[in-house]
## 1
Amino acid sequence: EVSTDTDRPQLVYELAPPPNTLSNVADAFVRGGTYANNNYGTNTQLVVKDNAGSADNDRMSFLKFDLSTVTGTVASAKIRLKVQNDDPGASHQLHFVSDDSWTETGITWNNQPSTGALIGTETVPAIGEWIEFEVTSQVNGELFGDGTLSVRVSESSIGTYAVYHAREVSTAEDRPQLVYELAPQANSLSN
């Protein structure tokens, strides 16, 4: 018989918590050209388009997530946007936005915050599907920062567009999401 618990055989296991979903606290698209001072924050759509022929048609979308309810280290995180309408083959980029002071009803093309590093580029899927951007390192960084994650979605292929559902859409399941999983907790059982 072993006298200390640490010398006895142990079964060590990890429990992976189920995925969690956060809704965004703000979103809006901005539009260039003669619409550059207009705000579209109450719109039910997030539009992304780059038209080489006319700045009036250029649009980018911004999203903001409050991470204050996330506790622990995040093992994986992704931003998901449901496609409402699109051009086949459109390619979209997600950029980090360090300035979280923008507001849903105040942001315009002319006062939009500058963007930081490119997070990722994804091909827009079919209507009714979800585009997903991996944001694990950005979420963990903001958990130790100001607790808020802002991003911008923009077009990386000129001449195409896509429309995503915004948080104002009536069907809750279609709204933007931040889906994350926490790092598993190690546990042990002694005999």
## 2
Amino acid sequence: YSVVRDASDKYKTEQRLIKAQEMARVANYEFDVIDNRYTYVSDTIFEIFGLNREIYPEYTSELFWSLVHPDDSNMVKQTLAAPAHQFSTTLTFRIVRPNGEVVYIKRNREAIYDKEGRLVKTIGTIQDVSDLVRSEQALRESDERFRFLVQHGNEMIAIINEDGFYTFVSNNVTQVLGYTAEKLVGQNAMS
């Protein structure tokens, strides 16, 4: 007696998942807390951390900690010790790849407990969010430059809503019109 199954659908599904992880720059892992070792890491983790599999054939806890940015190390350690880690956490922090490149990663992690309530395993995902973090930083810097120019420029700048009321007036309105910005905000520009 024997059973034969066609595994081609399962294989195709696994290949789709691998491709999706590569495209999204997402990796997943399982970590055995008792033995202090990763029991599973997807191949994408090596790409995210910039690791050559010939040099680093195994992804270990020691390797992970050696790559965490020194300025973020305490923050990452605190999330492991904090009560909030009991079920799930999300944390964005930096790593330093072996080539020196700094990468921002977002880690989502869930804790698995045994029947006695002891932490035995964590599972999670790691995603390279460097592009997003750098875009957010550039936007903040641009916003700060714009605000500085508006507040310190020679021209009076105001924003008037669709009903004709000032919603914003630059501080130099005092030199131009003799009023304070606070006095004009909420006033009708047409009256």
